Amino acid sequence: MAEINRRIVLAARPHGEPNPSHFRLEEGRVPAPREGEVLLRTRWLSLDPYMRGRMSAAKSYAEPVGIGEVMTGEVVAEVTASNNPAYQVGDLVTAFSGWQDYAVSAGKALRRVDPALAPPTTALGVLGMPGMTAYTGLLTIGQPKPGETVVVAAAAGPVGSLVGQIARIRGARAVGIAGGPEKCAYLRDELGFDAAVDHRGEDLPGALAAACPNGIDVYFENVGGAVFEAVLPLLNDFARVPVCGLVAGYNATELPPGPDRTPVLMRAILTRRLHLQGFIVWDFADQAAAFGREVGAWLKAGRVTYREDIVEGLENAPEAFIGMLQGRNFGKLVVRVA
Amino acid sequence: MAEINRRIVLAARPHGEPNPSHFRLEEGRVPAPREGEVLLRTRWLSLDPYMRGRMSAAKSYAEPVGIGEVMTGEVVAEVTASNNPAYQVGDLVTAFSGWQDYAVSAGKALRRVDPALAPPTTALGVLGMPGMTAYTGLLTIGQPKPGETVVVAAAAGPVGSLVGQIARIRGARAVGIAGGPEKCAYLRDELGFDAAVDHRGEDLPGALAAACPNGIDVYFENVGGAVFEAVLPLLNDFARVPVCGLVAGYNATELPPGPDRTPVLMRAILTRRLHLQGFIVWDFADQAAAFGREVGAWLKAGRVTYREDIVEGLENAPEAFIGMLQGRNFGKLVVRVA
Predict the structure, then answer these.
(1) Min CA distance, B259 vs chain A (Å)?
(2) C-alpha distance from A49 to closest chain B C-alpha (Å)
(3) What is the tens place of the pLDDT at every residue in A204-262?
(4) 3-state SS of chain B?
(5) In this structure, are B276 and B135 located in the same domain?
(6) What's the pTM value of the predicted model, to 2 decimals?
(7) Do B104 and B162 have their domain in common?
């Protein structure tokens, strides 16, 4: 066991794109578990777009990370010491212990990971928070019906890729939007999407319209910006829009130039009777068991597949995170910490 | 029976505010009912904001009125001749026969009006389309819970006034927005709203915030524009926004100046998990019986009250309609035709 706990803290709040100066690698002592606590050794750290929100002081659904505090994040960790009878050394668990090598926990917010069922990293991806985000948002708000068209952006990522695959399982047509021909080929050839549109292409609105000849019934929103502008004219009457993320705007420092197009959106909502609804995965915590059961079965049966983008070393987490916000990852971004 | 059928047709499509030149009063022969048809004599004509949409060629949930065609509208009419065994001379019905003295109907889209149950004009207001709009949108999408705060604009109108009263019946706090002190006093003193805010006052955002110390849980949207801007910052987590109308923008000829505030709305939807949903009353046609039963009972029991603004003479319908879009009516606007 290492004697040192490395941790990455928020050094400064970014204005616009984060860069390495906003993070700082610190070293400290490995904490000692007290009565009832366990010591967790981080094995894998999940990197997710929501973390950009936690770096800002703006009001959101969760408190911001304080300056000098460890960056927030979910990990798969191994219990390396235990004063809690519920956990034994060697157990694998998920924990929200952040960007660091070690943490102590009273054991209450831990979730067991069984490596015999699936690779442990899936607890951070297809069988974890991103997967449950896709499952709950698509099925509870999106409610795709057979023959309908479901569109999702960031479709090669852990949320989008599962949205499209579940849409297909439910009998809908899945159209994915992703950056670059390699990701688009992956969507079509490996995930079975009915169509894929490269948002870096010259004419996104035209390409999307061509990929959706019957319009769009469900748009799973996780990017916003130019993609949403291309989607809006194609939304059918009674279309559903689960609003899960707006990553295209997370680094924005000012609003887009005018005119103010809010009335265009509101008029579309009214005349086409659109249903827009924001959510975060914890709003649907009561669906966790159903999610694990159903997606676990699909995974086992080969009806759902996933892709991971593994980065080596905690010290490389900031650069990997910065790249993710630019779409440089290909699949679920995970840092192997130990 | 008059020998002449007066009808008001769309003379030209307005760009911006309608004025009298966009309407034309024509005279023609009273149509003769054929086999299976009835002749309807218009008694009262309902004037409603949605008609502004029908004057425009822009795509919406209904076809526009053609140039030279009779303006669309619902009426209470009396059967004055009948070749249909289901209807007798003297029967009162509602019909979508438009801004004219007479019309023939095959009887299929008629709804009987029983003057013994309530004044016939209520079939165009509290017990008609506006009432059902309030009932279905508020209860199905808004879903107010006891203790929650419900805000509605155009609150002295037929939709808004019922929204507030139903909110109160359901145990919620009702806050109405209306134009001028007289309407605000009516909301508080006669309809029992918990608070009323004058949108013509100097500081609408401040006044609304003061009237909603616990934020807003349901905002019944029928105006848009500056009112929605004042509402948005006050919406609580998980607030519901039935989008029923956007009358503040119906006469707009261009979008408001920039910046584009769409991302502000989308971010609010995401982080506060708002639920915005457009609807028109016909989407909830299956609730017609429940609406009539429940609101009818509230009306009879004095738990719901209403106000009408009666204009005399079909020839005055255009001016009354133009005034309604400016908020000049006070209560449900109805034209007494005969």
Answers:
(1) 4
(2) 14
(3) 999 999 999 999 999 999 999 999 999 999 999 999 999 999 988 888 889 999 999 99
(4) CCCEEEEEEECCCCCCCCCHHHEEEEEEECCCCCCCCEEEEEEEEECCCHHHHHCCCCCCCCCCCCCCCECCCCEEEEEEEECCCCCCCCCEEEECCCCECEEEECCCCCEECCCCCCCHHHHHCCCCHHHHHHHHHHHHHHCCCCCCEEEECCCCCHHHHHHHHHHHHCCCEEEEEECCHHHHHHHHHCCCCCEEEECCCCCHHHHHHHHCCCCEEEEEECCCHHHHHHHHHHEEEEEEEEECCCHHHCCCCCCCCCCCCHHHHHHHHHHCCCEEEECCHHHHHHHHHHHHHHHHHHHHCCCCCCCEEEEECHHHHHHHHHHHHCCCCCCEEEEECC
(5) yes
(6) 0.94
(7) no
